[in-house]
Sequence to fold (496 residues):
Amino acid sequence: MAQSEQEILAGLAEIVNEETGLDPETVQSDKAFTDDLDIDSLSMMTIVVNAEEKFGVRIPDDEVKNLRTVGDAVSFIQSNQS
Amino acid sequence: MSTERRVVVTGLGATTPLGGTITDTWDAILAGTPGARPMTEDWVEKYELPVTFAATIHTSPEEVLTKVECRRMDPSAQYAMVASREAWADAGSPEVDPERFMVAIGTGIGGVHTLLTQWDNLREKGVRRVFPLAVPMLMPNTSSGNVSLALGARAGAHTAVSACASGAESMGLAVDQILSGRADIVIAGGTEAAIHPLPFAGFAQMQALSTRNDDPAHASRPYDTARDGFVMGEGAAVIVLESEEHARARGARIYAELAPAGMSSDAHHITAPEPEGAGASRAMREAVQRAGLTPADIVHINAHATSTPVGDVAEANAIRRAFGDATDGMCVSGTKSMTGHLLGAAGALEALFTILSVHHRIAPATINIENLDPEISLDVVRGEHRKLPQGDIAALNNSFGFGGHNVALAVKSI
Fold:
């Protein structure tokens, strides 16, 4: 069952916090992973894999570069959850 | 005033089986505390290991570092980071020119936890579960790299790998780098986190470990007739080294002088010590000579003394071969009786003890000697720790490693 946008955002914020130590409150939909949150490509890789496991989706490597903001990731996860 | 360039010690840091800091570790040493304890990990039973105890770390780095730091560093680098931050703070966290600031942290085995955990992930869960930082976490230079990054050291980040001599070798290389003018200040030492089933099983299969499973506290007993192998330990030990000029200019507290190291290699056997101790004694003599001393100036030796039947005697022979009758004026301590064997961090930790011995004029006791092996013709400190003389004194620290590496460091009072 698909989760709400809010649930996915909260789950993603938890993963980002675990990986980077960033306060989950700062992980908002309009924030860009690289430019705003200063997340490097190696951390992004870990976040993606952890999100796949948490949300039961597959995020192909080619897709990762399109996930510029946290909101992009939330939408992708939501639309791909079965 | 001397125009001779000298290298001095201005900061100390360690995380060991005896304590989360060098202060706690040294207090435990003076109290004669054994660091070995039964292991609680499920793999001990699972693999039916013949040895069920080790000198495990006293304070988990998770109590000191952030969660993210722990995730991104192998335990060996975590230990190095804890020790380096303590040493840097102890040196007064000085403002330094980053391009004159260097790191030299050695290791015997490197990021073995990461290597094997990630291999398990690959086999059991597939390629996408391999941590993207697996390689920078498992490489042997992961500690020197991470510490240089954390403290902003840009004159070089070096990693001596010479098994159980790695920590001492790193300090020796650091002294040479300062004397040659390549750096003013260096964080130098060693780290090891190899209490993992594979290296543990390897050492056990080699018959190198004590199997005194029913009494871990008395298992590490250098020089005792009933010694039966070493006790595996883990941790890190680091010092801040500076040119004397740099230290004096900033009014730093100086613990002691560290002289340039004596080093040699046996070319005899990949693990066994050369029985006559020719290589080891050459390293010791070189250390004394490079320090501008004579054997009569050495009042104390912190020996390698791992508690193996062959190794302890070989080292004792090498000491006498190096110094002849002057050996009688040197009191010898085997602190691995308390710390266990920290492998690539052992030489570094024992160098810290040697520095503190010279600074506080105390030679620690070797614990667990019930019957001194008659083959050991040394003045072994046991029972109580012993006072060292006032005035100008010097002490020696020996470290030897598989591969035939011999490193001797001379510490001079200041």
Remarks:
- The interface with chain B takes residues 18-21, 42-43, 45-46, 49, 52 of chain A (CB under 8 Å).
